[in-house]
Prior knowledge:
Layout: E1 2-3, H1 5-13, E2 18-20, E3 27-31, H2 35-45, E4 54-56, H3 74-81, E5 86-91, H4 99-102, E6 107-111, H5 116-125, E7 128-129, H6 144-151, E8 157-158, E9 170-175, E10 178-183, H7 193-196, E11 226-228, E12 240-244, E13 255-259, H8 264-280, E14 285-288, H9 296-309
Amino acid sequence: xxxxxxxxxxxxxxxxxxxxxxxxxxxxxxxxxxxxxxxxxxxxxxxxxxxxxxxxxxxxxxxxxxxxxxxxxxxxxxxxxxxxxxxxxxxxxxxxxxxxxxxxxxxxxxxxxxxxxxxxxxxxxxxxxxxxxxxxxxxxxxxxxxxxxxxxxxxxxxxxxxxxxxxxxxxxxxxxxxxxxxxxxxxxxxxxxxxxxxxxxxxxxxxxxxxxxxxxxxxxxxxxxxxxxxxxxxxxxxxxxxxxxxxxxxxxxxxxxxxxxxxxxxxxxxxxxxxxxxxxxxxxxxxxxxxxxxxxxxxxxxxxxxxxxxxxxxxx
Length: 316
Ligand code: TXA
Ligand code: MG
């Protein structure tokens, strides 16, 4: 149910949850001061409590009260990419942020989103925690309709239109004297090179007791349809193709287009919508054309498609 910005603000102030637009994906919001509303996020999403939440702020100053040490290049990164699709994991004074937000970790993730409505909400309500507004394991929501699909027509959503980026923020963490990527996202790894003097590497997903980025352990972005890849297109009649405008596919096959090989940003923008379309149409199997470049935003697109097609170690 679409709500006005005034309604969204008063719901959050009174300890309720609302879905808010961001440039990446819609977020399922709770005010940082309302622990009960934060707990409810986990219930609504069916999210394991071991998976921490990102704190969304409006200004860099707002995070200064929580953070113990700002790693090198923090200011450069913040100034270059905020507001925008970058999340920085920083060490915090543990008592300053409820355990439930950070899943007991001594760090918290911060981001200034780039959406005028949501920035206004944060200015009025204060810091807001929000994971992506989807049921755990489902593709993230990039339109108000996707949010309603997962949480019902009555769930309050502030309508900011379709998300311009369509993929979640890139998450960086400073470790052993270098920034590393905990989650590939809307900003490519290459984009950090000139500022940092090196391209941050992608942290290994560890399955030990203390994973760096707990969310990477869970099954993600998955439609109910089975996604398969590989060199040859299966010839059974029911398998459809997720492909690109420039390619020629067997004429008898139905193709749902991800976009153009020339333009990864529009592929990113529509990716979760396409994955959701598979379920709306009750398609049981799709072959994904993964023959695209291995650089920039394509790497994030490839990672999301791979995670949508395989089950990771812990399902939820
Ligand atoms: O673009 C985005 O980042 C969106 C919008 C709504 O801002 N949010 C989002 O949140 O994608 P979520 O909860 O779906 O993903 C957050 C990821 C999870 O993988 C979580 O494990 C990781 O961030 N994370 C959060 N706090 C962390 C921390 N302190 N240390 C390591 N990873 C953390
Ligand atoms: Mg998510």
